[in-house]
Amino acid sequence: MVTMNDVARAAGVSMMTVSNVLNDRPRVGKETRARVLDVVAHLGYEINLTARHLRAGRTDTVAFVVPGFQTYFDEIADRLAAAFGAQGRHLVVESTGARPENELAALSSVRLSMYDGVILSVAGLTLTEIEGVRTTAPLVLLGEVEVPERFDHVMLANAEGAALATARMLATGSRRIAIAGGDPGGPHDGAGMAAIRRAGWVRAHEGAGLTADPALVAPGAGVGPEVGREAVRHLERSGVDYDGVFAVTDSTAVGVLAGLAEAGRRVPQDVQVVGFDNLDLAEFTVPGLTSVDPGRDAVAHHAARLLQRRIDGATPEPEHVVVPVRLVERGTTRAS
Amino acid sequence: MVTMNDVARAAGVSMMTVSNVLNDRPRVGKETRARVLDVVAHLGYEINLTARHLRAGRTDTVAFVVPGFQTYFDEIADRLAAAFGAQGRHLVVESTGARPENELAALSSVRLSMYDGVILSVAGLTLTEIEGVRTTAPLVLLGEVEVPERFDHVMLANAEGAALATARMLATGSRRIAIAGGDPGGPHDGAGMAAIRRAGWVRAHEGAGLTADPALVAPGAGVGPEVGREAVRHLERSGVDYDGVFAVTDSTAVGVLAGLAEAGRRVPQDVQVVGFDNLDLAEFTVPGLTSVDPGRDAVAHHAARLLQRRIDGATPEPEHVVVPVRLVERGTTRAS
DNA sequence: CTGAAAGCGCTAACAG
DNA sequence: CTGTTAGCGCTTTCAG
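Output (structure tokens, whole complex):
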């Protein structure tokens, strides 16, 4: 490995001069600079970032830790990358594989010191587990679960969104609205998030003077398409009457649509469907998926802003941002 | 910030002992160990990875650099994370935003020194641009473009897959098979990959004694769903006759299905459709998407293996792996 | 079983 | 405009 020292020696200058050249600092003579660059190219020198990081005390890199690399997070990640890129910082994405122990590891430990800051998307941790975390590193939590007061936190208006979705279907004639995805079968399969969204589903019924029927909560842990399809299959098998489905995520909704097609139910004539996330994909399902838009731009914006102020060294009051949602209407709901 | 020195002082031992305790090295007394751990907990000490990295000369972290965080790459990333995790290494994912200059930056420069190795998914770079790269860091290239001999490279059997897809539709009666996605309108929008797949489309026609009609190459750069939908809209507007569509990626295919629904074409009765990638999503479109499966497990396996041997310090002959593909038949093609 | 010294590669601060 | 000094926080020698 060729070091800065090697370059300095070969160019007949001091290391400092090499450093100054490489960092585009002004006070270096033209010829010296040229000679140094020449030697750099010749020797194939590449700066050792690790050393620079140690010296500088920062890495100019922030991490976005997600439960998995799948959809929804990718659309947040792109926005975060843009936000941090604009500040001259790099974004890296790490996955916990949805394993709570990895989420904890991302929090409590060591790896924080590799980054100037971390945005952790909490999926599997409980409040108590997070309580135990003692870290002073810049950290912002993302996600639809309760977190301790002392952390910065960005979450969605989950219950409101779910209520919005449900109310929309009630308004256009559905009376038996099932809910698919995130059943608390497994502890870390979006169960926390789904519970809040289920509360919104209940609330919307109440708001309309109706009662949500527990028989319409389809079983199945997780929030992927397979859960949505299984939910519909379950409804069909059980013979229960239903004329609407609220899917706790768009990903689930895609499976719901597949299941309904399989069962020969027409959407939206026989069954209306609403998802949550408004993924790019929602525009391309057949029919287009009506979905709750979580304001990803706002989520990314707030996460980046909150992390930034911690990195800047401030120790402000923790902020808990709830990003408002809105309903985007497409073809899986009937005209109102 | 509390350092190892602080811990040592507070525990009345040397730094070395603290280090030994923290690294679970054997030759430390039971009581000493307990005392040290106690102080560590008390002071909230966390090891500084940057310093360890500098000292150790490695970071136990590898990077997967992708054009964007979207689908397909996420499904590779999950597999890579598993493969490297099993070796006690971390995987981080970085996005270039599909900008060639960022791909180059990922290659040539600095950032390589942050990682023990890099897997770069090449999307926008030309052969000449890659030729210019001089790096000795462990590096594996992924992607459907030509790369210099001297790099390890994993790619798919693109032309074969495209031919397979096309031949399948020809075998079940399609005679006018359009191709959607990756038109060389923009230089860095999957154009290289699409060109190879288009060659497979041509070859399949020849194999059947037919000629691919250039009028059936739908315009539109990129490989996302919007391109697929626009492709169908273009075909419809142009009034050209078609009874099959090969979409260069599944993502494109999703848009094609949306476009066909919009145009009132029945799939697969009026128009057959085949995609490429066999995304998890392919099972959940309506109807289910017939798709070329690129053997993602194999891709991830080879990429990890090739990188591993470079990290291990070997300088073996560069390997160029072509991963075989197979066709997964679902509802967008007719029974054969 | 524990400690002291040396240095990984770089840069901030200060001289010259 | 260029060089010297010192040290970021840790771990690998090698002594005790």
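The radius of gyration of chain A is 25 Å.
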